[in-house]
Amino acid sequence: MTPNFDEAWRDKARPVETFSLDAVFEIACVGGTERLDAVAAAMREPVRTLCDALGQPIPASGALPCATLVGHEAPLVAYYRALIDTLIAQGAASSLGNPFPWFSIKPSIRRGDTGLFTFFYLDSAADTVDLFRTLRDAPSAPPGLLFHDLDQGWAMHIDKADGRVLVAEWDCEDDSPVPDVFTFDTGQLAAQAATALTHLTPIHAALVRAFNRDYWTFRPSAPPTPAAKGFLKFLHAMGLRRRST
Q1: Which end of the chain is flanked by fewer CB atoms within 10 Å, N or C?
Q2: What pTM did the predictor assign?
Q3: Using CA atoms, how far apart are residues 20 and 94, in angstroms rounded to an integer?
């Protein structure tokens, strides 16, 4: 499949009139590899404590919507303190250098209980904030391309036309003829992106203040390496990582 958006896909786009957009915090409760299983087991009680404070069950997907975390910064900080202690105790301190997988914050667009996109390589607070700002500002943007990303075979294209925002996500290495393509009302998408930013920005800032370090954003001195990205592709192939959020 092409790494570039194919205009022929536009005719296959499906309108989505009711949806929810938010950021999600991925928490350590989903296993799948020896390391993931070990951390998830050690974090079982901190995860339960956090979810009890939020008044919700532990999510099967391992993703907590940011909207549910508003006003609950203290238990979220306690969860991350336990996570850092666990990673150090298990000899995984090197995992503290970048958000993936333990400190990931991702965009999410859902229709009912179904995530429409994986946002495959958007893992950090900065990635998510940048995308949400683009969507928030879409009503005032000229028609045309709003966002495009291509990384290790994953591609996403977002553009604006005729009062709607089109979002396409696909795997360049997949043989499927047409990826999932959806369109959204520009104003509704922008309003939800603005609300999501008002939730995420202060929570992220509170976490950075609490730890005096930004674990949720890729550090310039330690960008994701080709080997790390290859590991992401392995997890994707094994079905362990990139769920639609």
Answers
A1: N
A2: 0.87
A3: 35
